[in-house]
User: Fold TetR/AcrR family transcriptional regulator from Microbacterium candidum.
Amino acid sequence: MRTARAARADLRTRQVLRAAARLMGREGADAVSMQAIADEAGVSVGLIYKYFGNKQDLVLAITVQVLDDVAMSVPAAVDRAGDDAVLALAAGFRAYCETIDEHRHAAVLTYRESKTLGADGQSELKRREVATMKPLVGAVRRGIDAGLFTAVDAELMTYDLVMLAHAWALKHWYFERSFDLEAYVTHQTAIVLGGLIVPERRADYPALLRPSAAPHTTGGR
Assistant:
């Protein structure tokens, strides 16, 4: 019984957070009332206040949810890819992009509103974001040690990948004219790995380095 109640509470919380992310991401947190969020989520405003004291609590919870989902999806993808650092990095980057795609509104909201969270909230988000990078940093370092990657700064390389993943949400209005998610991930992976893999090993990864020439998509130009 307790497990069922917890599952329902988690479902309601996610429902509220998704609704809040949609509205706040589109209109800004200050312009959105708790009642509007309740209406969007299809719940009572009292239910929202049961879990969240104010809109800043909502913004923090939305951002933490994204980072928690990344913290689950990326290491799982890296582990499934096995020992090959190239495949592991490509799989981790794909998982990061897919998770950001699932939370596009939340990602936009995070960039727009995280400065309103105060020092403690911002410190918490920074700590969690650094933790999400570790599997990708590890894959880059393994690739360097194995002679697959050029000797780059692993953390800087990882931040580049993270920013590319976030760019799918932040500039989705632009990218969606020419790319769907699959094409975006495939082509960005090819660009990154093309500069990262040492020349003598590039022939080992044709599927990753030579995607289909036409970056196609959902809407056309």
Remarks:
- The two ends are 53 Å apart (CA to CA).
